[in-house]
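Design request, tokens follow.
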């Protein structure tokens, strides 16, 4: 219950203040006259907020599986995930009106800036607009030819401005011409932690004089993504375009980058196509991408260990060579028996000799 004391010169003035501050449901607890006029004690019943909403263990496991930083995970742990994302992070569309300021895409090498320019241009051409495409990427070999291949298919002109001075002149020509679509500017991939590259990026941003959007792929380490986003935000980035969300399973890096840099989530790369591979990144889309994985992390599968090699057995002692058979004795000579002379027998009487 909310109790408040009111003093006024007359009861009507006190009641008017009570109705304004506490509403028509206020209760009058007491009134009394004082030297200045009247004193009224009023009260208002406040509804019981009930017990605080408990965090969902399954939600906590899901956010931990994505690698979302603990502070942000605590803010997303209760209620509908879509509503929690809308309350914890910023979401904003890209300025793509014909009269909007130029849109400059920056980011690390290989983040997908050139393809994102082509996808945005395709979307605008299909909607009946004619965007003006400018490339300031004079660092990467084949960068101009890659973007020129898309602009030829879309029947759009491509301006190459590799230096801040050339980019400034291109912006002057774009402002002087009839605005049939926004100006989309591609930039080289630069290391934001290197002082020379950071100075070159600041010069390009100053020459363009428009909205700066950071292009960052999904699936990166959350801490690394947060560091990159903070550095690019200091350079002037205000929007975040998350690419390769169709290939990344863990999206903690995207959320960490948006929180660390204070960047508004704008677009998401959700497929390989030029016409339908980019979509507005809304709380509903982000919640669906986060919840497409199991609500609890799968248990880590043990890494199979190779069986230990068998302990080598000590070699058997070599068997002694078989003893040589004793030489066989020479056969004894066969005895030669002497021949005996025939024995003469005495003749028997009556026999013939």
């Amino acid at each position: 219950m909310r109790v408040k004391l009111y003093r006024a010169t007359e009861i009507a003035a006190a009641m008017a203040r009570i109705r304004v501050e506490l509403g028509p449901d206020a209760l009058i607890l007491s009134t009394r006259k004082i030297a200045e006029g009247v004193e009224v004690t009023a009260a208002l019943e406040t509804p019981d907020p009930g017990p605080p909403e408990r965090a969902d263990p399954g939600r906590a496991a899901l956010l931990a599986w994505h690698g979302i930083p603990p502070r942000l995970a605590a803010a997303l742990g209760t209620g509908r995930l879509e509503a929690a994302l809308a309350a914890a992070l910023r979401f904003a569309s890209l300025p793509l009106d014909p009269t909007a300021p130029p849109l400059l895409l920056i980011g690390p090498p290989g983040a997908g800036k050139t393809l994102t320019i082509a996808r945005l241009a395709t979307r605008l051409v299909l909607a009946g607009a004619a965007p003006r495409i400018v490339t300031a990427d004079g660092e990467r070999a084949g960068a101009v030819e890659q973007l020129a291949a898309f602009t030829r298919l879309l029947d759009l002109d491509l301006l190459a401005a590799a230096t801040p001075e050339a980019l400034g002149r291109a912006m002057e020509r774009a402002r002087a011409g009839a605005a049939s679509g926004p100006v989309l500017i591609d930039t080289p991939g630069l290391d934001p932690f290197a002082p020379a590259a950071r100075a070159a990026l600041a010069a390009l941003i100053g020459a363009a004089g428009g909205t700066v959007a950071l292009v960052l792929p999904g699936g990166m380490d959350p801490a690394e993504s947060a560091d990159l986003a903070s550095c690019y935000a200091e350079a002037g980035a205000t929007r975040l375009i998350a690419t390769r969300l169709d290939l990344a399973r863990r999206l903690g890096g995207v959320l960490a980058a948006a929180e660390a840099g204070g960047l508004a989530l704008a677009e998401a790369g959700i497929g390989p196509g030029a016409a339908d591979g980019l979509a507005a990144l809304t709380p509903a889309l982000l919640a669906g991408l986060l919840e497409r994985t199991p609500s609890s992390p799968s248990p880590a599968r043990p890494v199979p260990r190779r069986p230990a090699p068998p302990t080598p057995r000590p070699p058997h002692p070599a068997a002694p060579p078989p003893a040589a058979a004793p030489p066989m004795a020479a056969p004894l000579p066969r005895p030669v028996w002497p021949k005996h002379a025939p024995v003469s027998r005495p003749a028997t009487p009556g026999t013939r000799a």
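Comment from the thread starter after seeing the answer: thanks! Confidence is low (pLDDT under 50) at residues 295-301.
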